[in-house]
Specification:
The protein is α/β, with parallel strands linked by helices. It has 2 domains: about 5-215, 3-Layer(aba) Sandwich (Rossmann fold); about 225-330, Magnesium chelatase subunit I, C-Terminal domain (Helicase, Ruva Protein, domain 3, Orthogonal Bundle), CATH 1.10.8.80. Helix content is about 50%, strand content about 15%. It contains 15 helices and 13 strands. It has helices at about 5-20, 30-40, 55-65, 80-85, 120-135, 170, 185-195, 210-220, 225-240, 250-255, 260-275, 285-295, 305-310, 315-325, 330, and strands at about 45-50, 65, 70-75, 85-90, 100-105, 110-115, 135-140, 140-145, 150-155, 175-180, 210, 255, 300.
Length: about 325
């Protein structure tokens, strides 16, 4: 299959995934697009929004569209690492002897829904951190590899902070995208009520299996990025570092810490997926700008002044995009 055919196949697969999810999820086009971009790039997603907006339903629908194993983990303050990873159990053999046997936990699946992830203790979140980064877990005294492909789609509620444990920056950085789920419009809410109160149940078809998904992820890695576009992504990341030569004014005013190098990696990978979706085998400046907010918003740490003035990381990212020119030559002018 030549490159043009590969691009067309990628676009058709993406469109099929989006359309199948649309049978169940009303609206939220940008959230669906962001989730699919992250998965096609091989990354994890953090969905943040108030209860009842369909975050969990989106992940459940995605598990139905993808022919992958799926487990849901409901995070609570009393959840222990062994409840996620598994533990050694005493089992009786056929000849009557007793021996330890490792019983796998729910983390051993392709697609994990980590519901209300910020309700778990730091001890439990550390188990998730290893799984998300290394795609392996340490349990029963052994390092055990997780199945490939492996994705964590986590949800969290931004308003109810009682009994929660904010995710550490190191774990937030492991999420490819942070997507903020907003309220539906009037027409969308009407459609939601119609679907959910009149017994209408949509049936979705499976579009992708694990092997096909891995092939698409490999194609994403092959998309070239011109040096001037890559340089633009680098300058965006460097511009987020306060008190440095590359910092822009908004960064020095409102940030304590900027993006990690992983933010730059995610900018390029997400840009590659977006280019393929639009039928191009090269990444443009527009691709980088379009994915900047979900890529960087959870990687920037606000200072006290920003919090006092109600400034969000989205505001900072938007200003960075305005202040950092696309043409590197303008920086030196």
């Amino acid at each position: 299959m030549n490159t043009e055919d590969q691009i067309q196949s990628f676009r058709q697969t993406y469109a099929s995934l989006r359309d199948e999810i649309g049978k169940v999820i009303v609206g939220h086009e940008s959230i669906v697009e962001g989730t699919l971009i992250a998965i096609l790039a091989g990354g994890h997603v953090l969905l943040e929004g108030v209860p009842g907006l369909g975050k969990t339903l989106l992940v459940r629908t995605l598990s139905e569209v993808l022919n992958l194993s799926f487990n849901r983990i409901q995070f609570t303050p009393d959840l222990m690492p062994a409840d996620i990873l598994g533990t050694n159990m005493v089992m009786e053999t056929a000849d009557g002897r007793r021996e330890f046997e490792f019983q796998r936990g729910p983390i051993f699946a392709h697609l994990i829904l980590a519901d209300e992830i910020n309700r778990a203790t730091p001890k439990t979140q550390s188990a998730m951190l290893e799984a998300m980064q290394e795609k392996s877990v340490t349990a029963g005294g052994e390092i055990r590899k997780l199945v490939e492909p492996f994705f964590v789609l986590a949800t969290q509620n931004p308003i109810d902070q009682e009994g929660t444990y904010p995710l550490p920056e190191a774990q937030l950085d492991r999420f490819f995208f942070k997507l903020v789920v907003g309220y539906p419009s009037g027409d969308e809410l009407t459609e939601v009520l119609t679907r959910t109160t009149e017994g209408v149940r949509a049936t979705v078809n499976k579009i992708l299996d694990g092997a096909a998904l891995i092939e698409l992820q490999q194609l994403v890695r092959q998309v070239p990025v011109a040096s001037h576009v890559k340089n633009y992504a680098v300058r965006l990341v460097l511009a987020s570092h306060p008190k440095t030569e590359t910092a822009v004014p908004v960064t020095n005013q409102y940030l304590r810490f900027g993006s990690s190098p992983r933010g730059g990696q995610c900018l390029l990978l997400a840009g590659k997926v977006r280019a393929l979706i639009q039928g191009r085998f090269n990444v443009s400046f527009d691709d980088i700008q379009a994915v900047a907010a979900p890529t960087l918003r959870h990687r920037l740490i606000l200072n006290f002044e920003a919090e006092a003035e109600g400034i969000t990381t989205d505001h900072v990212v938007a200003q960075i995009l305005k202040d950092v020119p696309r043409d590197a030559a303008m920086v030196n002018a």
